[in-house]
Amino acid sequence: MDYIFSILGILFYVYLVMTVVLLLLDNREPSTTMAWVMVFILLPVVGAVIYIFIGRNWRRVDEKTKLSQQFLEDRSSAMLAPLIEAQMDRGSRLKQKKDVVHKQKLFHLLQRSSNSILTTNNAIEVLQNGSQKFPRLMEDLRGARESIHMEYFIWRSDPLTKEVRDILVAKRKQGVEVRILYDAIGSIFLDRRYVREMRAAGIEMYPYFNFLSPLKIHTLNYRNHRKVVVVDGRIGYAGGMNMGQEYVDGGKQFDYWRDTHLRISGETVNVLQGIFVTSWYNTTGKELFDTKYFPAVPADPHELPVQVTTSGPDSRWPSIKHLYFTLISSAEKKVYIQSPYFIPDPSVHTALKMAAFGGLDVRVIIAGVPDKKLPYWSAFTYFKDLLRAGVRIYHYQKGFLHAKTIMIDSEICSVGTANMDVRSFHLNYELNTLLYDERITAGLEEDFMRDLQDSREFTLEDYQELDETVKLRNSLARLLAPLL
Hints:
CATH topology of the largest domain: Endonuclease, Chain A
Mean pLDDT: 87
Low-confidence stretches: 61-67
CATH class of the largest domain: Alpha Beta
Number of domains: 3
Number of strands: 21
CATH architecture of the largest domain: 2-Layer Sandwich
């Protein structure tokens, strides 16, 4: 019997060494590596199988993927050539604005880390909830003449999406091209009859990363978290709201849904189109790199500089994490952040503390009525040091806060899909819009201040009064945070 235990002990040691070596070769964040080591120890063999299927970043190590990325970059660059050629001149014009240094830094950061194009000929409308977004969106869908492209993380089968379906079916009968991408996990409850009805009407509707396919099972842990609409290549939507009734009325779980989305017209729409057609090619293998989807934009004397940045598990750099870090560390007066989930990586966590230590007004609003318990509990473990540094933290109480926004110094803001968490930084396909515009940023700050009235401040005293069992629960949740 002792002999058998000795053999099992040796096998476990070999197993642990091999799996840890596999982890180290992936060069992940230390916190993520340690979380997976715990999984390997607590779930021998099973943990390794789980990691191989949902933990390892196959996209980044696949040489064929790298070749495909270069092909897509070349094709997308060809469609966006006029914008690319103009952006250096536009970047230099940022020097003429005040507080030049951090604007130049952000411009070059996004350009180099994610090939983000700076556009200036834009008009932006900020939409703060589903009651504002969806009537506007449906109006634009009804007005479509040539093409409708939609890409969403969540697509429900409910009264809202049935109304959208009826509009899309009618437009398809009029000859408008309609293409839809939805995330296979985010939209796992989407009624398959709904999809069949769309396809029967001539609408092309596909899941991004169909994990049910044996060839795609290793993508199970990836999410296409983007929310993009492009109508006729002239009107675009991007932001936090998915396609579902709860984004209008809060659904069964919440009394209210607070979110932020953008309606965009101008050159940035061509950039959104480039992102969609790249996703479309990755999903279907079909090319849409055609000038008819990238119309020229009339000149507008009122400049609104915008950069759209994306990131994902196959990105060379975690560009949205870099964006958040640089925004926070570049601020000189104030940093206002909204995110439903708060699981920052060490660099962003440190940047927030340093900003507060430097005397800046740093405030964070997160969901106070959570939809997911584990990330909500985990967030509390990050609060103590932030509160001691002077960061002010608030829990939104009116309903569910789903907005993902950052505003600095009433001058620059980011609106997007990326939460302030590790999953958004490394595992999800995300999209954020950076606006170098004082008017829009000031407007978002006013909305932020109104949201504070519907929030409860969480203080250092509140943290110290937490029961020790609650702190233990939160700490256990944090151990899983890098995997959430």
